[in-house]
Amino acid sequence: MPRLSAITPSGPAHLGNYLGAVRRWAREGRPGDLYFVSDLHAMTTFYDPQRLRSRTRDLLALLVASGIDPDRVFVQSDLLAQLGPLTWLLECTCSFGEAARMTQFKEKSAARELAETPVRVGLFTYPVLMAADILLQGTAEVPVGDDQAQHVELARALARRFNGTFGEAFVVPVAVTPPAAARVRDLADPSRKMDKSARDAAGVLYVMDAPDLLRRKVKRAVTDSLDRLEYRPDEQPGLANLLEILAACTGKPVREAADGFSSYGELKDTVAEVVIEELRPVRERISALLADQPELDRVRRRGAELATARGAERLEVALRLAGLGR
Ligand code: AQP
């Protein structure tokens, strides 16, 4: 069953995005799987337009540079002409109560209210846009973490309701748990996950960081004073994070990753080097793509054309069933 996955340009891509998602997409993707840069989703909270545009381009380059088939990759806003009407159909299929139950909205809006920043209507309706993303492409499976499972459930409910009320238009999607992958934590604060939009970049290893910067960040990673080189995530979360990164980059089982090291310093040196080597080819390919704007534009245009063609008939059927058109 083809699957649909996305990455949001809410900040520059980091090692967590790469090891936890993009590398796996490139290695384990099935024929028919689709990937997109969800730039429209990055607009639900404060954003800078120029940065949004350049980060979108950077993430597109990352997906392609990582080895994902460029024909399976697109940018969400390139489908705006289809997503707009479909989102409206789905908003008119969704009840207010249903949308208001989304726990991610409750959490994010509460945090914004606390910070006295306006909560955008787009933050409230974005799960419906996400449903449109899924239903337009007609992918049956959507691999998501716990925080997004409720949104896929909403897409499922809306597809069923639309089909039941107006007639068969949509594939009813299902949320699937992605295969276990590294969950990379912030090096400066291992109680948090490594985050694109982290305020402090000290603990975030960005894919495009230069080798020296990566080395410095790893060297400064928070560990502990126990001086015990073992994988004990609850007692030694900082050390465990480094071991998980090492295991993910070398393919060794995490419980054996500490074998052979005699100090935290020595371990950090090795972690820095394996991360640098893991990211080097990707970084080089991204740089080459970004330097060849016409090629990247061509990839983007083709991805958009293919994605638009995939959704065109489905959208037309849905609009007609909903009573629109002549
Ligand atoms: N720290 C992480 N470790 C492993 N995987 C991670 N992912 C994100 N952070 C880690 C995975 O990257 C994919 C794309 O993520 P996203 O764009 O949906 O962003 P996110 O999950 O909200 O986390 P980010 O990248 O840190 O961004 P912000 O700052 O916006 O929260 C997903 O498959 C995700 O699991």
Automatic annotation (TrEMBL):
GO terms for cellular component: cytosol. Gene3D superfamilies: HUPs (3.40.50.620), Tyrosyl-Transfer RNA Synthetase (1.10.240.10). It is an enzyme of class 6 (ligase). One of its GO terms (biological process) is tryptophanyl-tRNA aminoacylation. Its EC number is 6.1.1.2. Pfam families: tRNA-synt_1b (PF00579). GO terms for molecular function: ATP binding; tryptophan-tRNA ligase activity. Keywords: Aminoacyl-tRNA synthetase, ATP-binding, Ligase, Nucleotide-binding, Protein biosynthesis. The keyword Aminoacyl-tRNA synthetase applies. Belongs to the class-I aminoacyl-tRNA synthetase family. This is Tryptophan--tRNA ligase. It comes from Actinophytocola xinjiangensis.
